[in-house]
Amino acid sequence: MTEPDPRLTAARGDIAALHLSGQVVSRRYVEGSRFQVAAAHSALRRTADAASEQVNQALFGETFMAYDQSHGWAWGQMENDGYVGWMALASLTPEVVAATHRVRALRTFVFERPDLKSVPMMALSMNAKLTPGDSVQGFRKLARSGWVFAGHVGSLGEVEPDFVRVAERFTGSPYLWGGRDSIGLDCSGLVQAALEAAGVEALRDSDMQERSLGVEIAPDLTDLKRGDLVFWPGHVAIMLDATRVIHANAWHMAVEVEDLAGAVARIRLAGGEVRCVRRLG
């Protein structure tokens, strides 16, 4: 029997999600409490410690099921991609409102008033979830927050036609391990964010994406097309065309466009060979 992936399974030896009863062994099963991210973004950490590794990141308006709470931290599972970890309770609210829209711009400000000269309260990244109400002078009022420029807001049903073009908009964004925000993201975070904007759900880590996205094609790096995903151990890049890739990478510490041949040669020196290429339908 295959062991459940702990990154996607809300179970520990002492506590687990109620719906996992009978599937995993734990001393206690709980229903959990649903929260919503009220900060611009919130780190999901490996342990209940602000200095712990960021394994994922939740954006404003996304929801989180908490199964354990301790000393200002909640342990649980992100509902958008199922990732498990610890999140600071200070960034969450129990007052959950259903999101109907998302940020479609790379980044946008939330203002105190429907006025571009008013004080910005926070900056939201692409794919942050919104529940907008009244429209005044080209701004939309957000539930429990301020005003956002209406042109940066799109309904959840409005999708981008080309996820690669979305990825290109992140060019120059700094590399950040575990990040999904335009101010900092990693290789699989870029793939996930771009695909989400195009209406395609993707799991969080590159190995998960390698197993679940598209179909595998010959990994000989010939006849590649725009949108193909190239996977190395622990890394993924998106083909811009037959010869160039875009990827968030630790060599440039940013989202960068470069020749595939150069990336392959550099990563090979670090001990990594291309493992597979997958093509989306």
Structure commentary:
With 281 residues, this protein is mainly beta. The chain has three domains: 16-93, SH3 type barrels; 101-155, SH3 type barrels, CATH 2.30.30; 163-279, Alpha-Beta Complex (endopeptidase fold (from Nostoc punctiforme)). 12% of the residues lie in helices and 37% in strands. It is built from four helices and 25 strands. The chain has helices at residues 163-168, 187-197, 206-212, 260-269; strands at residues 16-17, 29-30, 33-37, 41-45, 54-59, 63-70, 73-78, 84-88, 92-93, 101-103, 107-111, 120-125, 129-130, 132-136, 139-142, 147-149, 153-155, 180-181, 184-185, 215-217, 229-232, 235-239, 244-249, 254-259, 276-279. The strands form seven sheets. Strands 20-25-21-22-23-24 form a six-stranded antiparallel beta sheet, sandwiched between helices. It has a five-stranded antiparallel beta sheet with strand order 8-7-6-3-9, with no helix packed on it. The mean pLDDT is 97.
